[in-house]
Structure formats: C-alpha cells, structure tokens
Amino acid sequence: MRRCILISAAVVILPAGLAAVATPARAQGASAGPMRPAPGVVPEKPPVVDTKNEIKSRVDEVTAPVSVRDAQGEIVMSLTKKNFRVYDNGAEQSIDHFDLGGDPLSIVLAVETSSHIEPMLPAVRKTGIVFTQAVMAKTAEAAVIGYDDSVNLLGDFTSDRDVVQALVNGLPEGSSGSHLYDAMARGVAILAERPAARRRVLVVVGEPRDTGSENKLGQVLREAQLANVSIYSVGLSSTLADLRAPPSQYEPPQIGPPGTYPVPTPNGMPQTPEIEQQMQGNMDLGALAIWLVRTGLNALGPNSLAVASKATGGLTINVKKDGSIQKAMDEIGGELHTDYTLSYHPAGNDTSGYHEIKITVDKPGLTVRTRPGYYIPPPPA
Fold it and tell me: How far is CA 212 from CA 3, 4, 48, 161, 180, in A?
C-alpha cells in the first residue's frame, strides 16, 4: 500500500475573497463541557487562527504526471519505473511512487457559463456524458464549478456519475463576465484539500481569456504546482463571441517590466501589436509559465489556458466547432488514464525559489511532457 505524505508546512493560501470550501463549523449554542452558560450569556467562541500570512517553507512530496509519446504522436504505455530518471534542480531523485493510469482521481470541472459563450453552451452541456464516462471513468470523484462574473460551486465532490452528468446538463447561463483566474483559484483550493493518495486534476472549459478576476494567473499556477494539481483545458472560441469582441482587444503578454516588450522583433522590424501577436505563436510557453510562477503576475493575451496546462503538466485543446468539444473532452480522458504518475520526496533540496523538474526516459525517439517545476516562496521577513 502506498504511504502518502501530505505537503507539510504547505498551506496554500488564496488571495483574500476566495476561501476554500470547508466543512461548516459546529453550532456554538452551548459549551461542549459539563458547564452550561448562564441564561442570556453568549458562550465565548474559540479564537480564530489567522492563516492568511502562512506560506510554504518546504515540500515533502512532489507528484509529476508524465505523458510519453512516440515519433508518430501515439501514447507509449510500455515503460517501467526503471526507464525513468527524475531530476529536481539538476539533482537526481529517487522515485517513491510509480503508476500508469491507475491512481484514483479527484477532479474539479470548471465551466464558463457567461453569456459570451451562449452559442456554444448547449454543446458544452452535452459533454456531461463524455466527462463522466471518459474523464471520471470508474476511479474518480468530481466537483463542478460554474463561472461568469462570479464563481459558483454547483456541486461538491461525488463519485456518482449520474449526479455529475445532471449538473453539466443543467449548466445555467450567466452574466457577461469571465472570472477565469478566480475559478481556477477556487478549483485549486478545494483540490488541495483532497487526500494526497488521489491525483488532483482541474479541467477548465471556457474561453482562454479573463475579465475582472481578483486573482492573478501567476499566483494561481504557483498554488497549483505546490498542491500537485494538473490543469487540463478545452479552449472555446465561438464565432459570435469573436464578432462581439471590440475591434482591437489585443494586449501583449506582460513578460517584462510594464511598458516594455523585452523580446527582440525579427530582423529589426518595428515593434507593433501585429508583430508581437505573430510572435506569440512561437513563444516559449514553458519559459512564460516559469516567469509567471516566479513573479505571481498576469500574462495578458490569448494563451492563458495553454500556459496553465504547460505550467502543471496538463493538456490544452482549442476548439471552434460544437462537435469538437466532446472530442476534446474524450481526448483529455484518454490521456488522464494513460499518463504515468511519478512521485518523489526532494532530498535536501527544499530551498526557496523555483525548482526545475526534468524527467527523461532511456528509450530514444520518445517525447516526454511533464510539469516544469514548482516555486517555494521565501520565508517571511
């Protein structure tokens, strides 16, 4: 039996305004001991522990999902633990847990319900059966979140697939906002409370853009990495949403100090939004993800979901047609249940800062995809 160790000193704290889902406290109408309060006297409440300023100081266990494909892009499932090498900041680690698609899953499905995706919402609702059969399968529990200009927990964790399917089939249409980062933060927070023996997965279905969230993408990704949460996404792009967009909504990603764009343009061409947008197609999302996690800031532009998946070892699939949504969900399910899962306890390498994870296999011609690393904040001054 696998002995799972929770990340110690590892309270993942979300920014103010997004509390994790917790068990309601017991009523305090009477004291728990034999002494009864006098009539009309309100019992003194226990002191509230302020955890807002707590941060992680070390990581006990790191879990890395690993997808391996051959030169034709086919998933490789024939490798064993001996074929893998894991490095944390260049130091080889001992693999403590190895599994191929068998670990039980805890999944949060976060779905955009804003009026902006109204043309695609019926197709999104139809993914309920695919999500429950292909993604949840037989070993998963799932919770469902809907988000527009607010974030709502539509259903808490359950392994009853009929209940989850009904929640997805009945997704309501909301307002015009899209608090993507707040929804991701909420999902990461409730996943962080699930047992460490379960693989934690956040599946996001929505447009790869955010409007008005209090949370920043970098901070969300930092917390996801520390909580061993993998982010998978289905990026929506409806024709009607594009037509509703203002003529010039492009903003370059903030990958440097405000007001600068520290990536040289090709052949000395003038720096324009059009040139920068073209360059984003070739941008190193891994490097951008690491920068975001280190700084805790936002990256503006069309790559939010792709960066989130890159930062956590997940997969993002962008769709433009209704029929492609179910196919994308099925592909995510197929990968989740064929991924390798490797866990290790960093040996003498718990210093603050960014820790790069590198995983290799001893078979030539294979492509390995995993999370790039994790960030440990420095201790409070």
Answer: 41, 38, 30, 33, 9
